[in-house]
Amino acid sequence: GYGGEAFRIRPASPDTADDDTWADYLFMRTNPKGWNWELWSHATGCRKFFVVKRNTATNSIAGSWTLSDGRKVYDAEGGSQ
After folding, report:
1. What's the predicted TM-score (pTM) here?
2. pLDDT tens digit sequence for 48-60
């Protein structure tokens, strides 16, 4: 199942973050038209999470990776959604 945007950055100081910071982290999404990095889970199989690079306009898939391998590709591309 769909798990949301991949590689979102948590607030730097979770214990002292205000409500607006948490609301932004939890609920605001970029919702791009085009390529997007997404977190998915294999819910009916191994139940592991993985990363997919998917075009939201065409549903084309550029690839899927483990979380750590996907992060390397994401960072190599400049860390952009």
Report:
1. 0.81
2. 999 999 999 999 9
